[in-house]
């Protein structure tokens, strides 16, 4: 890869109930992590709120998941740089795309910022009103 070219890593959250993204290289399902939806004081918040993020990623499962994903994506980044790829898209999903996936994306993106890559983050379904829908 030329010195002016850099691998761009796009990390985004989504809700499986709104469809699995098709324009993605890696899809990670984090629906096994503790779900803030079932905690009344957290339900209306998102994974961008510190209380929700702490609930998800500070749990034993959350800590282990984030650590293993960080290792995996560091490896993947190295492999994609060696293959001279320009972009890697990583989708991390939970049920509605408002809580767990958002918190994990933010944690993973913060880690990737320490790598020699460009990092873009977005939350596809965070504003969808999943609270009015019945499951």
Please outline the helices and strands.
Elements: E1 8-15, E2 26-29, H1 40-43, H2 50-57, H3 60-82, E3 87-94, H4 100-112, E4 118-123
Parallel strand pairs: 1-3, 1-4, 2-3
Helix pairs in contact: 2-4, 3-4
Which short descriptors sum up this protein?
alpha/beta; 135 residues
Number of DSSP-assigned strands: 4
Q: Uncertain regions: pLDDT < 50 for 5+ in a row?
A: none
User: H/E order of the elements?
Assistant: EEHHHEHE
How many separate structural domains? 1
| Major sheet description | 4 strands, parallel
Beta-strand percentage range: 15-25%
Which structural category do the helix and sheet elements fall into?
alpha/beta
What's the rounded overall pLDDT mean? 91
Helix count, DSSP H or I runs of 4 or more residues: 4
Ends distance: 47 Å
Radius of gyration: 15 Å
Task: Describe the structure in your own words.
- The chain is α/β, with parallel strands linked by helices and about 140 residues long.
- α2 crosses α4 and α3 packs across α4.
- It has a 4-stranded parallel β-sheet, covered by helices on one side.
- Helices cover about 35% and strands about 20% of the residues.
- The chain has one domain.
Short description:
With 135 residues, the protein is α/β, with parallel strands linked by helices. It is built from four helices and four strands. The protein has one domain.
């Amino acid at each position: 890869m030329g010195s002016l070219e850099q691998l761009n890593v796009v990390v985004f959250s989504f809700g499986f109930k709104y469809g699995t993204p098709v324009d993605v290289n890696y899809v990670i399902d984090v629906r096994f992590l503790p779900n803030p939806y079932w905690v009344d004081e957290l339900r209306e918040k998102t994974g961008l709120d510190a209380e929700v993020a702490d609930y998800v990623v500070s749990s034993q499962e959350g800590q282990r998941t984030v650590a293993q994903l960080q290792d995996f994506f560091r490896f993947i980044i190295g492999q994609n740089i060696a293959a001279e790829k320009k972009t890697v898209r990583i989708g991390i999903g939970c049920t509605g795309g408002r809580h767990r996936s958002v918190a994990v994306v933010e944690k993973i993106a913060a880690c990737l910022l320490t790598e020699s890559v460009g990092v873009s983050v977005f939350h596809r379904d965070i504003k969808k009103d999943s609270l009015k829908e019945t499951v």
